[in-house]
Amino acid sequence: MAILINNDGDCSQEWANHLQPHLPEYTLYCYEQLSNTDAIVEDIEYALVWNHPAGDLRRYPNLKAILILGAGTEHIDHDSTVPQVPIVRLIDPEMSRDMAQYALYWVMNTQRHYDTYRQQQLQHRWQRYPAAAAGDINVLIVGMGEIGTTIAEIFQWNGFVVTGWNRRPKEVTDIDCRFGFDTLEPALSEADAVVLCLPKNAHTIGFINRQRLAKMKPNATLINVGRGAVIDDDALREALDNETLDRAVLDVYSEEPLPSAAWYWQHPKVTVTPHMSGATYPRSAAKVIAANIRRIERGETPYPIHPHPAHIKN
Ligand code: GLV
Fold first, then answer.
1. Beta carbon of 72 within 6 Å of any ligand 1 atom
2. Is the C-beta atom of 71 inside 6 A of ligand 1?
3. What is the pLDDT of residues 206-217, one digit of tens each?
4. Residue 127's domain spans which residues?
5. pTM above 0.90, yes or no
6. What distance in angstroms lies between residue 118's CA and the mean position of ligand 1's atoms?
7. What CATH code is carried by the domain that includes residue 132?
8. Per-residue b/e over 28-55, b at no fewer than 16 CB within 10 Å?
9. Are residues 107 and 254 in the same domain?
10. Which one of 167, 210, 275, 311 is the catalytic residue?
Protein backbone atom coordinates (compact mmCIF):
# COMPACT_ATOMS: atom_id res chain seq x y z
CA MET A 1 0.00 0.00 0.00
CA ALA A 2 1.70 3.15 -1.16
CA ILE A 3 1.13 6.79 -1.96
CA LEU A 4 3.01 8.79 -4.56
CA ILE A 5 3.71 12.47 -3.82
CA ASN A 6 4.70 14.74 -6.68
CA ASN A 7 4.65 18.39 -5.64
CA ASP A 8 5.87 19.86 -8.93
CA GLY A 9 8.93 17.58 -8.67
CA ASP A 10 10.01 19.48 -5.58
CA CYS A 11 9.69 19.40 -1.76
CA SER A 12 7.56 16.26 -1.78
CA GLN A 13 9.47 15.13 1.32
CA GLU A 14 7.92 17.92 3.40
CA TRP A 15 4.49 16.64 2.41
CA ALA A 16 5.54 13.09 3.25
CA ASN A 17 6.67 14.16 6.73
CA HIS A 18 3.30 15.73 7.46
CA LEU A 19 1.23 12.96 5.89
CA GLN A 20 2.93 9.93 7.42
CA PRO A 21 1.53 10.33 10.97
CA HIS A 22 -2.01 10.51 9.54
CA LEU A 23 -1.52 7.52 7.23
CA PRO A 24 0.98 5.28 9.08
CA GLU A 25 0.07 2.09 7.21
CA TYR A 26 1.07 3.55 3.81
CA THR A 27 4.55 3.76 2.30
CA LEU A 28 5.04 7.27 0.92
CA TYR A 29 7.15 7.71 -2.20
CA CYS A 30 8.42 11.09 -3.36
CA TYR A 31 8.31 11.34 -7.14
CA GLU A 32 11.78 12.82 -7.38
CA GLN A 33 13.22 9.77 -5.58
CA LEU A 34 11.13 7.17 -7.38
CA SER A 35 12.92 4.71 -9.59
CA ASN A 36 10.99 3.06 -12.37
CA THR A 37 10.64 -0.35 -10.78
CA ASP A 38 7.41 -2.25 -11.42
CA ALA A 39 6.99 -3.32 -7.82
CA ILE A 40 6.71 0.27 -6.62
CA VAL A 41 4.55 1.38 -9.51
CA GLU A 42 2.05 -1.41 -8.79
CA ASP A 43 1.98 -0.63 -5.10
CA ILE A 44 0.78 2.93 -5.58
CA GLU A 45 -2.91 3.45 -4.78
CA TYR A 46 -3.06 7.22 -4.40
CA ALA A 47 -1.22 9.96 -6.29
CA LEU A 48 -0.88 13.37 -4.65
CA VAL A 49 0.14 15.78 -7.38
CA TRP A 50 0.78 19.37 -8.32
CA ASN A 51 1.97 20.04 -11.86
CA HIS A 52 2.91 16.42 -12.60
CA PRO A 53 4.37 15.52 -16.01
CA ALA A 54 1.49 14.76 -18.40
CA GLY A 55 1.08 11.03 -18.91
CA ASP A 56 2.84 10.03 -15.67
CA LEU A 57 -0.36 9.01 -13.86
CA ARG A 58 -0.96 6.24 -16.42
CA ARG A 59 2.07 4.41 -14.99
CA TYR A 60 0.26 3.28 -11.85
CA PRO A 61 -2.13 0.42 -12.68
CA ASN A 62 -3.68 0.19 -9.19
CA LEU A 63 -4.42 3.88 -8.66
CA LYS A 64 -7.66 4.47 -6.70
CA ALA A 65 -7.69 8.29 -6.77
CA ILE A 66 -5.67 11.37 -7.62
CA LEU A 67 -5.56 14.12 -4.98
CA ILE A 68 -4.45 17.57 -6.12
CA LEU A 69 -2.06 19.40 -3.78
CA GLY A 70 -3.87 22.72 -4.31
CA ALA A 71 -7.23 24.27 -5.09
CA GLY A 72 -6.65 25.01 -8.79
CA THR A 73 -7.03 22.36 -11.46
CA GLU A 74 -5.45 23.76 -14.61
CA HIS A 75 -2.27 21.71 -14.22
CA ILE A 76 -4.22 18.49 -14.22
CA ASP A 77 -6.80 19.63 -16.76
CA HIS A 78 -3.99 19.90 -19.33
CA ASP A 79 -3.28 16.18 -18.99
CA SER A 80 -5.84 14.47 -21.21
CA THR A 81 -4.38 11.05 -20.34
CA VAL A 82 -5.41 11.00 -16.65
CA PRO A 83 -6.80 7.59 -15.65
CA GLN A 84 -10.53 7.21 -14.91
CA VAL A 85 -10.26 7.49 -11.13
CA PRO A 86 -11.74 10.20 -8.90
CA ILE A 87 -9.76 13.46 -8.91
CA VAL A 88 -10.06 15.41 -5.68
CA ARG A 89 -9.23 19.10 -5.14
CA LEU A 90 -7.60 20.32 -1.97
CA ILE A 91 -9.74 22.68 0.04
CA ASP A 92 -7.79 23.46 3.16
CA PRO A 93 -9.65 25.77 5.57
CA GLU A 94 -6.35 27.45 6.48
CA MET A 95 -5.74 28.38 2.84
CA SER A 96 -9.29 29.74 2.46
CA ARG A 97 -8.86 31.78 5.63
CA ASP A 98 -5.58 33.20 4.35
CA MET A 99 -7.29 34.31 1.16
CA ALA A 100 -10.11 35.92 3.13
CA GLN A 101 -7.61 37.79 5.30
CA TYR A 102 -5.79 38.99 2.19
CA ALA A 103 -9.02 40.43 0.72
CA LEU A 104 -10.06 41.86 4.09
CA TYR A 105 -6.68 43.55 4.50
CA TRP A 106 -6.98 45.37 1.16
CA VAL A 107 -10.58 46.42 1.67
CA MET A 108 -9.71 47.79 5.11
CA ASN A 109 -6.56 49.40 3.76
CA THR A 110 -8.69 51.46 1.40
CA GLN A 111 -11.57 51.99 3.85
CA ARG A 112 -9.33 53.22 6.69
CA HIS A 113 -6.74 55.08 4.53
CA TYR A 114 -3.84 53.08 5.95
CA ASP A 115 -1.54 53.73 2.96
CA THR A 116 -2.23 57.47 3.22
CA TYR A 117 -1.44 57.49 6.96
CA ARG A 118 1.85 55.70 6.29
CA GLN A 119 2.77 58.39 3.76
CA GLN A 120 1.74 61.12 6.21
CA GLN A 121 3.87 59.57 8.93
CA LEU A 122 6.93 59.98 6.72
CA GLN A 123 6.07 63.71 6.53
CA HIS A 124 5.27 64.01 10.30
CA ARG A 125 1.79 65.06 9.30
CA TRP A 126 -1.28 64.68 11.57
CA GLN A 127 -4.49 64.63 9.59
CA ARG A 128 -7.58 62.46 9.90
CA TYR A 129 -9.86 61.44 7.04
CA PRO A 130 -13.47 60.35 7.31
CA ALA A 131 -13.84 56.59 6.96
CA ALA A 132 -17.01 54.65 6.16
CA ALA A 133 -18.01 52.10 8.79
CA ALA A 134 -17.83 48.46 7.71
CA GLY A 135 -21.63 48.34 7.87
CA ASP A 136 -21.76 50.98 5.12
CA ILE A 137 -19.47 49.07 2.77
CA ASN A 138 -20.90 46.54 0.30
CA VAL A 139 -18.56 43.70 -0.56
CA LEU A 140 -19.44 41.41 -3.44
CA ILE A 141 -17.81 37.98 -3.62
CA VAL A 142 -17.92 36.62 -7.18
CA GLY A 143 -17.64 32.82 -7.19
CA MET A 144 -19.20 31.19 -4.14
CA GLY A 145 -17.30 27.91 -4.10
CA GLU A 146 -15.70 26.71 -0.87
CA ILE A 147 -13.09 29.48 -0.85
CA GLY A 148 -15.51 32.24 -1.91
CA THR A 149 -17.95 31.21 0.80
CA THR A 150 -15.24 31.39 3.48
CA ILE A 151 -14.24 34.84 2.22
CA ALA A 152 -17.88 35.97 2.33
CA GLU A 153 -18.31 34.66 5.89
CA ILE A 154 -15.16 36.36 7.15
CA PHE A 155 -16.21 39.72 5.68
CA GLN A 156 -19.64 39.28 7.23
CA TRP A 157 -18.18 38.49 10.67
CA ASN A 158 -16.20 41.71 10.34
CA GLY A 159 -19.37 43.71 9.91
CA PHE A 160 -19.34 44.37 6.15
CA VAL A 161 -22.49 44.14 4.04
CA VAL A 162 -21.82 41.02 2.00
CA THR A 163 -23.38 39.71 -1.19
CA GLY A 164 -22.28 36.52 -2.93
CA TRP A 165 -22.71 35.77 -6.62
CA ASN A 166 -22.52 32.39 -8.29
CA ARG A 167 -23.28 31.34 -11.86
CA ARG A 168 -25.13 28.22 -10.78
CA PRO A 169 -27.59 28.14 -7.89
CA LYS A 170 -26.27 26.46 -4.77
CA GLU A 171 -27.21 26.30 -1.15
CA VAL A 172 -25.43 28.96 0.85
CA THR A 173 -26.52 29.60 4.41
CA ASP A 174 -26.32 32.99 6.09
CA ILE A 175 -24.98 34.92 3.06
CA ASP A 176 -27.23 36.94 0.75
CA CYS A 177 -26.42 35.20 -2.52
CA ARG A 178 -27.48 35.91 -6.12
CA PHE A 179 -27.35 33.37 -8.91
CA GLY A 180 -27.11 33.52 -12.69
CA PHE A 181 -25.89 36.13 -15.16
CA ASP A 182 -29.05 38.28 -14.91
CA THR A 183 -28.19 39.18 -11.33
CA LEU A 184 -24.49 39.93 -11.88
CA GLU A 185 -24.54 43.49 -13.20
CA PRO A 186 -26.96 44.81 -10.56
CA ALA A 187 -24.74 43.23 -7.89
CA LEU A 188 -21.59 44.78 -9.42
CA SER A 189 -23.25 48.19 -9.52
CA GLU A 190 -23.96 48.12 -5.75
CA ALA A 191 -20.52 46.96 -4.61
CA ASP A 192 -17.80 49.09 -3.03
CA ALA A 193 -15.39 46.18 -3.27
CA VAL A 194 -15.56 43.15 -5.55
CA VAL A 195 -13.55 40.05 -4.68
CA LEU A 196 -13.07 37.68 -7.62
CA CYS A 197 -12.79 34.10 -6.56
CA LEU A 198 -13.31 32.28 -9.84
CA PRO A 199 -11.40 29.38 -11.36
CA LYS A 200 -10.17 29.55 -14.95
CA ASN A 201 -12.50 27.70 -17.29
CA ALA A 202 -14.57 28.21 -20.44
CA HIS A 203 -17.17 30.23 -18.47
CA THR A 204 -14.73 32.55 -16.75
CA ILE A 205 -12.02 33.61 -19.24
CA GLY A 206 -12.45 37.38 -19.78
CA PHE A 207 -15.37 37.37 -17.33
CA ILE A 208 -14.58 40.87 -16.03
CA ASN A 209 -14.92 42.64 -19.34
CA ARG A 210 -15.62 46.24 -20.43
CA GLN A 211 -19.36 45.94 -20.01
CA ARG A 212 -19.12 44.53 -16.47
CA LEU A 213 -16.42 46.97 -15.42
CA ALA A 214 -18.66 49.81 -16.64
CA LYS A 215 -21.30 48.73 -14.11
CA MET A 216 -18.94 49.10 -11.16
CA LYS A 217 -18.85 52.20 -8.96
CA PRO A 218 -16.01 54.61 -9.85
CA ASN A 219 -14.74 54.46 -6.26
CA ALA A 220 -14.80 50.66 -6.10
CA THR A 221 -11.87 48.32 -5.47
CA LEU A 222 -11.48 45.15 -7.53
CA ILE A 223 -9.55 42.31 -5.87
CA ASN A 224 -8.60 39.14 -7.74
CA VAL A 225 -7.56 36.03 -5.79
CA GLY A 226 -8.91 33.47 -8.28
CA ARG A 227 -7.21 33.28 -11.65
CA GLY A 228 -5.75 36.10 -13.78
CA ALA A 229 -7.47 35.10 -17.01
CA VAL A 230 -10.82 36.07 -15.46
CA ILE A 231 -10.02 39.76 -16.06
CA ASP A 232 -9.78 41.34 -19.52
CA ASP A 233 -6.48 43.18 -18.93
CA ASP A 234 -7.06 45.90 -21.56
CA ALA A 235 -10.55 46.64 -20.27
CA LEU A 236 -9.21 46.92 -16.72
CA ARG A 237 -6.51 49.34 -17.78
CA GLU A 238 -9.08 51.52 -19.55
CA ALA A 239 -11.35 51.56 -16.50
CA LEU A 240 -8.47 52.60 -14.21
CA ASP A 241 -7.14 55.23 -16.65
CA ASN A 242 -10.61 56.66 -17.26
CA GLU A 243 -11.28 56.76 -13.51
CA THR A 244 -14.34 54.53 -13.73
CA LEU A 245 -12.63 52.19 -11.24
CA ASP A 246 -10.57 53.33 -8.27
CA ARG A 247 -8.22 50.48 -7.52
CA ALA A 248 -7.25 46.94 -8.51
CA VAL A 249 -5.48 44.55 -6.14
CA LEU A 250 -4.19 41.59 -8.10
CA ASP A 251 -2.64 38.39 -6.81
CA VAL A 252 -3.06 36.32 -9.98
CA TYR A 253 -2.27 36.96 -13.64
CA SER A 254 -2.82 35.44 -17.08
CA GLU A 255 0.92 34.83 -17.20
CA GLU A 256 2.87 33.96 -14.02
CA PRO A 257 5.37 35.08 -12.92
CA LEU A 258 4.03 38.44 -14.08
CA PRO A 259 6.38 39.52 -16.92
CA SER A 260 8.57 42.48 -15.95
CA ALA A 261 7.19 44.52 -18.89
CA ALA A 262 3.57 44.15 -17.69
CA TRP A 263 1.80 47.51 -17.18
CA TYR A 264 0.44 46.39 -13.85
CA TRP A 265 3.79 46.84 -12.10
CA GLN A 266 3.94 50.62 -12.43
CA HIS A 267 0.26 51.57 -12.58
CA PRO A 268 -0.50 53.87 -9.58
CA LYS A 269 -3.93 52.31 -9.07
CA VAL A 270 -2.75 48.70 -9.10
CA THR A 271 -1.33 46.66 -6.25
CA VAL A 272 0.60 43.61 -7.42
CA THR A 273 1.29 40.61 -5.16
CA PRO A 274 2.98 37.42 -6.39
CA HIS A 275 0.21 34.77 -6.11
CA MET A 276 0.58 34.52 -2.34
CA SER A 277 -2.92 35.26 -1.05
CA GLY A 278 -3.52 31.66 0.03
CA ALA A 279 -0.59 29.45 0.92
CA THR A 280 -0.85 25.67 0.94
CA TYR A 281 0.34 24.49 4.34
CA PRO A 282 1.35 20.81 4.27
CA ARG A 283 0.72 20.67 8.06
CA SER A 284 -2.98 21.46 7.77
CA ALA A 285 -3.52 20.15 4.22
CA ALA A 286 -2.20 16.70 5.23
CA LYS A 287 -5.22 16.26 7.54
CA VAL A 288 -7.63 17.13 4.73
CA ILE A 289 -5.90 14.72 2.31
CA ALA A 290 -5.76 11.89 4.85
CA ALA A 291 -9.47 12.37 5.62
CA ASN A 292 -10.27 12.03 1.91
CA ILE A 293 -8.18 8.85 1.59
CA ARG A 294 -10.01 7.41 4.62
CA ARG A 295 -13.34 8.32 3.00
CA ILE A 296 -12.41 6.48 -0.19
CA GLU A 297 -11.27 3.44 1.82
CA ARG A 298 -14.66 3.36 3.58
CA GLY A 299 -16.41 3.46 0.19
CA GLU A 300 -17.52 7.09 0.67
CA THR A 301 -17.10 9.96 -1.78
CA PRO A 302 -14.10 12.23 -1.24
CA TYR A 303 -14.64 15.97 -1.30
CA PRO A 304 -14.63 17.96 -3.51
CA ILE A 305 -14.48 15.80 -6.64
CA HIS A 306 -13.12 17.62 -9.68
CA PRO A 307 -14.96 16.87 -12.94
CA HIS A 308 -11.89 16.51 -15.19
CA PRO A 309 -12.54 17.44 -18.85
CA ALA A 310 -11.17 14.04 -20.02
CA HIS A 311 -13.60 12.24 -17.72
CA ILE A 312 -16.59 14.27 -18.85
CA LYS A 313 -15.87 13.66 -22.55
CA ASN A 314 -15.50 9.89 -22.16
C1 GLV B 1 -3.37 28.10 -5.80
O2 GLV B 1 -3.59 28.98 -6.57
C3 GLV B 1 -4.05 26.84 -5.83
O4 GLV B 1 -4.74 26.58 -6.82
O5 GLV B 1 -3.94 26.07 -4.87
1. yes
2. yes
3. 999 999 999 999
4. 93-272
5. yes
6. 31
7. 3.40.50.720
8. bbbbeebeeeeebbebbbbbbbbbbeee
9. yes
10. 275
